[in-house]
Design brief:
This protein has four domains: about 5-210, no CATH class; about 220-260, SH3 type barrels (Roll); about 270-355, Alpha-Beta Plaits; about 360-389, no CATH class. It has twelve helices and eight strands. It has helices spanning about 5-15, 25-60, 65-90, 95-130, 140-170, 170-180, 185-195, 195-210, 255, 285-295, 330-350, 370-380; strands spanning about 220, 225-230, 235-240, 245-250, 260, 270-275, 305-310, 315-325. The protein has a five-stranded antiparallel sheet with strand order 4-3-2-1-5. β3 (about 235-240) and β4 (about 245-250) form a beta hairpin. The longest helix has about 40 residues, at about 25-60. About 20% of the residues are buried.
């Protein structure tokens, strides 16, 4: 019943220790022993090979190589185990039959797992070359955004293909697929209707990757909230708000609705601080103090500092102070610093610049030269109640 060679020797060895066992018990023991030895041998080989590779990578001090090896360690371990079981199945017909039944699931799953591991390792390696922690990080953020979206789309396609191959190994599912292919028109309508959300998400992801309306790290205002693009997924985008909250925004919202992108072309920004002073205030001392405050602040990038009078009312002068910084968080802090420093300086050095409301109090004597209506109002304010005096 059992093949000759190694299996015969194992059978003879079992007979010597436990004679008289039924054939099916011997077959079970031989099969289990063969699988166990094959798995142990595969794990030992995998451990030895990857231990050597990790030592070589550690000596090279290349972080990219370490990422690739760590990503491939788990899927290749199971792949070697599967190969070992296949080799063991060559000697045992019953094990071969069992493997043929599960191979349709195991092989596509392992291949898909390895493909995803390689993809993620390559994407992480490419992201290392595009560091977004530098000041001029526009190209790096653009590259990371495209890599992230490509990673999501490619992972989805690999998973979709893997699951499809696994399902095709089931005879009933394969027969249904052939029947649907025979009626291609009806199948296209059914698949299109069922997969509409997924297809829309994929198309939206491609649209975000090509024209790049947003990038990772962009400062945006959407839905009345100001924050940074933290993560771009296939179906949604995560926006980190300044107070550490997270907005989960559908991808289509960035394609179909209006939003503000403060860092579309560059991370450098121009900010404003508005100051209101009394109309009689001398402006040149304020201008000199503003220049001194900005120049002494390390957050200023040295590009623009400017003061303008943008509005004049009967009670106040509106002054707009312009300044620049390397990115939106730095600009926000710079504006707060300038606002606080100017308020303290005005209170100590120019208290007369603080906005005041002036009221002219007039009695009946001062109202004689006015018209009847104005004279009557002023006389009433003076307490006489009689404009004629």
């Amino acid at each position: 019943m059992l093949q000759c060679g190694i299996l015969s020797r194992m059978t003879d060895w079992i007979d010597s220790f436990a004679p008289g066992l039924p054939d099916w018990v011997q077959l079970l023991i031989v099969t289990a022993s063969s699988v166990l030895l094959a798995v142990i041998a595969a794990l030992v080989i995998h451990w030895a090979v990857f231990r050597l590779l990790f030592k070589m990578v550690k000596a090279s001090r290349n972080e990219a190589d370490d990422i690739v090896l760590r990503g491939l360690a788990a899927p290749t371990r199971f792949a070697l185990v599967a190969i070992a079981i296949v080799l063991a199945a060559r000697e045992i017909p019953e094990l071969t039959a069992f493997w043929n039944r599960i191979a349709g699931f195991v092989v596509p799953a392992l291949v898909g797992w390895i493909a995803i591991a390689v993809l993620h390792a390559l994407v992480k390696t490419l992201k290392l070359r595009n560091n977004i922690d530098t000041e001029d990080n526009l190209k790096a953020r653009s590259a990371q955004t495209r890599l992230t979206i490509f990673n999501r789309l490619a992972t989805f396609l690999i998973v979709f293909a893997t699951v499809g191959l696994m399902l095709l190994s089931i005879p009933g599912v394969r027969d249904v697929g052939v029947t649907l292919m025979a009626s291609a028109g009806l199948a296209a309508l059914a698949v299109g209707a069922a997969a509409q959300p997924a297809l829309k998400a994929l198309i939206s992801g491609v649209q975000l990757a090509l024209p790049e309306p947003i990038r990772i790290g962009d400062a945006v205002i959407i839905g009345g909230e100001w924050g940074w693009i933290e993560e771009i997924r296939t179906t949604y985008v995560v926006v980190k708000v300044w107070d550490e909250r997270r907005l989960v925004v559908p991808t289509t919202k960035f394609l179909e609705e209006i939003f503000q992108n403060w860092t579309k072309t560059t991370a450098q920004l121009l900010g404003t601080v508005y100051l209101y002073v009394d109309p009689t205030t001398k402006l040149d001392p304020i201008r000199q103090k503003f220049f001194a405050i900005v120049e002494d602040n390390q957050r200023w990038d040295g590009r623009v500092k400017h003061m303008q009078v943008t509005e004049l009312t009967r009670d106040a002068i509106e002054i707009r102070l312009l300044m620049t910084a390397k990115d939106s968080p730095t600009l926000y802090d710079l504006r707060c610093d300038v606002r606080e420093a100017l308020i303290e300086w005005l209170a100590e050095e120019m208290p007369e610049a603080i906005v005041r409301q002036r009221v002219l109090v007039s009695g009946a004597e001062q109202a004689k030269g006015l018209g009847p209506a104005s004279a009557e109002a002023l006389a009433q304010l003076g307490g006489t109640g009689n404009p004629a005096g």
